[in-house]
From TrEMBL:
It holds the Pfam family HTH_20. It comes from the Bacteria. This is Transcriptional regulator, ArsR familyy protein. The keyword Transcription regulation applies. Keywords: DNA-binding, Transcription, Transcription regulation. NCBIfam families: HTH_metalloreg. The lineage of its organism: Bacteria, Pseudomonadati, Pseudomonadota, Alphaproteobacteria, Rhodobacterales.
Length: 110
């Protein structure tokens, strides 16, 4: 991931509703959620949610799949991985033991 792409991702996550959406989709995992379910869960109007989902999608943080009349959204784990790698690419100045606690914290306990 280059710096401009990282800045787009941070800008997308720099708004409360979009951050909530992204975290909700991470929790939903590979099942994902429909736009209507996301709106209902977060108490956000559907037209506002649509704009937020579009911004997250352009930033490479979520992806979608059409299911008939609905669109199901998923956290884009490759996009999230790219952002984390960007943040940590120069981590620890060649001392990987300093990064290990951070990596352990990131590892999914499930």
């Amino acid at each position: 991931m280059d710096e401009n792409h990282a800045l787009d991702a941070f800008a997308a996550l720099g708004q409360s509703t979009r951050l909530d959406v992204f975290r909700l989709l991470i929790k939903a995992g590979e099942v994902g959620m429909t736009a209507g379910d996301i709106s209902d869960t977060l108490g956000v109007r559907q037209n506002t949610m649509s704009a937020n989902l579009s911004i997250l999608s352009r930033a490479g943080l979520i992806r979608n799949k059409r299911e008939g009349r609905s669109i199901r959204y998923f956290a884009d784990m490759d996009g999230m991985r790219g952002l984390l790698v960007f943040l940590m690419e120069d981590c620890c100045g060649g001392r990987p033991e300093l990064c290990q606690p951070v990596l352990n914290e990131l590892a999914c306990p499930c």
